[in-house]
């Protein structure tokens, strides 16, 4: 009887976990892909260009993207972290590695994917060519 109860509990936990994992992935996948850039002004009045999707800076970039938003990210990774990237707009393995280094430097999850947490924690080149963190939410 114990074996049946233990097995039932274990299968329930596994099934419940399987249900949560796709939902977590769907949440991240629901962000639009960044395709361009937008000038943002943070709460302290600091301005910087960041990746955006049609003016929306709540977007994502992942390995395989190839567009102006990637080039902006590469530019800032070079300027603020000395990444030494070739600005080719291609989010390849070198851009991913440079982003992971910036994420580690910022003390956040270094998954190599760009999203809102990365936007809020890495350094950006501001209008005075200083590398700054942006405060976009109170």
Characteristic key phrases:
alpha+beta, 138 residues, 13% strand, 4 strands, Muramoyl-pentapeptide Carboxypeptidase, domain 1, 2 domains, single chain, 4 helices, 45% helix
Describe the structure.
This protein is α+β, with helices and mostly antiparallel strands and 138 residues long. It has 2 domains: 1-30; 32-133, PGBD-like superfamily/PGBD (Muramoyl-pentapeptide Carboxypeptidase, domain 1, Orthogonal Bundle). Helix content is 45%, strand content 13%. The strands form 2 sheets. The protein has a two-stranded antiparallel sheet with strand order 1-2. It has a two-stranded antiparallel sheet with strand order 3-4. Strand 1 and strand 2 (47-52) form a beta hairpin.
Entry summary:
The protein is an alpha+beta fold.
Which structural class fits the helix and strand makeup?
alpha+beta
Helix content: 40-55%
CATH architecture call of the largest domain: Orthogonal Bundle
Strand content: 5-15%
Q: Would you list the SSEs in sequence order as H and E?
A: HEEHHHEE
Query: Could you state the CATH homologous superfamily of the largest domain?
Result: PGBD-like superfamily/PGBD
Enumerate the strands of the largest sheet in spatial order, edge to edge or round the barrel: 1-2
Report the span from N to C terminus: 54 Å
Strand segment tally = 4
Number of helical segments? Answer: 4
Return the CATH topology of the largest domain.
Muramoyl-pentapeptide Carboxypeptidase, domain 1
**Main beta-sheet annotation:** 2 strands, antiparallel
- As residue ranges, the low-confidence spans are 1-27
Shape: globular
**Can you identify the CATH class of the largest domain?**
Mainly Alpha
Q: Can you give the mean pLDDT?
A: 84
Domains, number: 2
- Rg, Cα atoms, Å: 19 Å
